[in-house]
Amino acid sequence: MCVKVVAPARLETCKGNTRPNGLKDGVTKWRKKIVNIKEKKINAFGRSISAIAVVLMLLTTGIAGAALVSVYFTTAGTVNVSAPLSVSPTTYEVPLVAGNTHEVTLEVTNSADVAIPANLVTVASDDISVTYLDANRVPIVHPVAIMPGTTTIYAHIELRPDLTGDDYVITTTAVPVANRKALILENKDPADAWNIIDDNRVATLIYNPRGNNFNYALIGSGLEPNTEYSLIYYADKAERFTYWGGDNPGALIGIGTTTTNGNLAMDGSINLNMNLPCPPDANIDGVDYTIEDGYSNAHGAKLWLVPSSDYNEGEKRVTVYNPTDYLFETDLISYTDTNIN
Q: What is the rounded CA–CA span in Å between residue 248 and residue 276?
């Protein structure tokens, strides 16, 4: 990977190219650009540092490559780093009434064009407890996927019964989490070419694409009330419509139970002892899902959310096929188990 500077001098990345576009004199001018950048100074994190240090820091952390932060060079040599996530209001007050609970509506804005895994960080007195609910009033487990655009969440605030003093000031920020990806699980209509059904029955999964354990956090809504669900790795056989079940090899990732309102919040960490996808899963190199279903990834692993009553943990397979009760993948994922790689 290389870095290129294009008008209006925006930092971008390029692949398969050893020099930036638009530089007529090739490598010589490119080196001059790097020298010029190295000589610039900016104020960041309360210190004066070189612009090239900021660039290297962003590239090293993967932020620039993931398009989570945009970096611009102006004629004055400053760098403006625009945060992709913002919370409004960031700071808010609650009246001090001992033992009371309060709820504050917050708007979280994601200015990027992709979902960003993030933690909601609270700065408040130890005397109060703050929990967050999503737009469907499902308790948020972290990290949570902040979707593009503006999303409503609720801050649920509880005060200790013995409090005294002035009103309390609370600050909430949304901080992107590195090494996490988001996957939407949707219900699909088998009678309509498996198109996504537009309703509130959906789940959002945050996971790490690489690690010793597969770490996940899932929030779902519109599900069957008071029902146990299993998050599974569904591995296809070559004749997937004839030999279904997902046990090729397949795996149980986690189990959770919905509330009386059909909401689900679950998180966990599991040593899968395999990569996803894992041989002999036919989706490693079989059907091209960018053509078949319009996915972003041609090959990878399928993750489903199914009622536990339809799944046999010992056999790692779906034993009763009720597709209208399931939430299916909307893309294929990859996970590298560092215990075996």
A: 12
